[in-house]
Amino acid sequence: MSNAECAQRHPKSTTTWVLLIIVIIYILVFATTLSIHKKHKRNIRGHFFHSHTQVKRRKKEATRDQHTGQHIPATLDLTDVQQEVTDTLQNEKQIDFADGQQVTDILQNKIPFEEQHQRLRFIPGTLTLTQAETLSHCYADPDIYEHHFPKRKIRGIPISLKHKLVFIMIAKSGSSTGRWVMNNVLDAEELKVQKDLLELSLGGKYEDFSTITFARDPLSRFYSSYDEVFYRYGPWMAGHEKNGRYGAWAKHVREFDHPHDYMYENMTTYQDFQDAFCPPHIIPEEHTLKHFAKPRIPNWCSNQPTRENGTLAAIFERFVFSYDGVSTWDVHLNLQVPMLSNQKTGRPARVDEVFSTEMSIKNWENIVSRYGQTLPEDDENLYGRAIPRRFNPKLVSRETKERICQLAAIDYCCLNFKLPKECNDQGKDVSCALDKDEQGVYRIQPWSHPHEVSRDVPKARTDLG
C-alpha cells in the first residue's frame, strides 16, 4: 500500500500526531521560559537582599588594606553586582509599587504584612503619617551611613529646663534660627548630651521633655550645604592669622587633604570666588571703595543675588557626580536622618514633632505660643545666616537634581517628603522600601542607597570636566 493511500485511509491519525508534536514543543518552550524567569527573579532578589553584606565585606577589605599601609580612598565604589542591579532597575518597564495608604495601614497594624512581599516598594511622601511618625520607623544603616552620624561623642543642644523642651539641631535646617529662639525666647541653654541622644529615651534624663526638630527639603538643603562647604574649605580660608578668631580653622584647611580639590581650580583667592558670583562691573560706583573681597568681611556683594555665568554651576554639577554620597567630611553635608539616629542601632531618637523650615517663623510662633511667649518683631536673628545662593540653580540640569534626590533618598523616605517635580518620575529613580529587621520590627529605608546609585555623568553633561 502506498503512503498516499495510507494517508487517505487514516487522515485523523496523521492530524493527531501533528497536534501532539505541536503540544510537546509548546510545553518545552513554556518550561524553558519559566525556568529563565525564575532564575532572573531569584538573582535580582539576591542582589538586593545581599547588597548590605557586600558593603560590609568591602569596608572590611578597605580596613585590611589600610593596615598594610596602602592608601585607600574613603569611598564605597559601585561593585559589578550593584551596577547590574542599577542597570536592571533602569531597564524595568513596570515597577510594582505599594500604595502609600497600604504601607501606612501596615505600619499602624491595620492590615497584615504578607511574608511573600518581604520588601514593599513605595514612593516618598505618599504615607498618611506625620513626619515624626514616619521617622519613628526609619532605619539608617550604621555601615552605609557611618560618616553621616555625629562625629563627636558629646554634642550640645538647646534644652529649656523651664519649659521641658528639647530642640535637636540639624545643620542647614534652620539650626541658627532655632538656637536663637530657644536661648532668647524659651530660656534654653545649650546642654551636653550623648551623640546618640540616649538621654531622650525612656529612662533617660529628659525622657519626659518634649522633643522637636526642624527638617528641610533635601534638594534645597543640598544646595545650601554645598555652598557652605565650598566657602568654608576654599584656599582663601587658610590665610587667617594663627592667633586670630579663625586661626584653628585656617590650620585645619591648610592641613586638610580635600577629596574634591578640582573645585578650586583657577579660583585660589576670595577675590576670584567673589568675581564669579558678583562680577566687578555690576558693583555701583559708590560701593567700589568699600569693595573688600575678603572672607568673613561683608561688603556690597555679600547679599546680592548671584550673577554667575555658569562657572560655579558647572563646578557644582561635577561635584554632584563625583561625590559618592557616603564619604562626607563636613557636618553640613551630613544627611538629616542619621543626625537624628543612634549610630549603634540605626534607629531614630525620640522625636515628638518635626517642623518644616519652609514656614520656619510661623512654626516658631506656634511653638513659643504654647508656652505663653511671642517672637520679637522684625528681629534679624530670626532669619539665621541667610545668604544668597552663590551658584545659579537655574543653570543646574535635571539629571543633576535627580542624582541629588537619589543621594538624599533616606531623607525623602524617612521624613515623608514629597519629591520635587525635578525628581518625581513615579519612583523609578527615587523610591522607598518597607521590610522587617531580624527582630520582626518594621523599618523604612531607601530602595537604593547612595553607593548603589550610578555615578555615570549623562552624555549631555560631559562638558563638566
Structure description:
The protein is of the alpha/beta class. It is 37% helix and 9% strand. It has 14 helices and 8 strands. The protein has helices at 3-9, 11-67, 80-91, 100-107, 131-135, 175-184, 218-232, 247-255, 270-277, 311-322, 336-339, 360-369, 398-407, 409-414, and strands spanning 120-122, 154-160, 165-168, 189-194, 210-215, 353-356, 432-436, 442-446. The strands form 2 sheets. A 5-stranded mixed sheet has the order 4-2-3-5-6, covered by helices on one side. A 3-stranded antiparallel sheet has the order 1-7-8. α2 crosses α3 (80-91). Mean pLDDT is 82; it is low at 36-79 and 89-93.
Keywords:
465 residues, alpha/beta, three-stranded antiparallel beta sheet, 8 strands, 9% strand
Overview in brief:
It is built from 14 helices and 8 strands.
List the topology elements.
Blueprint: H1 3-9, H2 11-67, H3 80-91, H4 100-107, E1 120-122, H5 131-135, E2 154-160, E3 165-168, H6 175-184, E4 189-194, E5 210-215, H7 218-232, H8 247-255, H9 270-277, H10 311-322, H11 336-339, E6 353-356, H12 360-369, H13 398-407, H14 409-414, E7 432-436, E8 442-446
Parallel strand pairs: 3-5, 5-6
Antiparallel strand pairs: 1-7, 2-3, 2-4, 7-8
Helix pairs in contact: 2-3
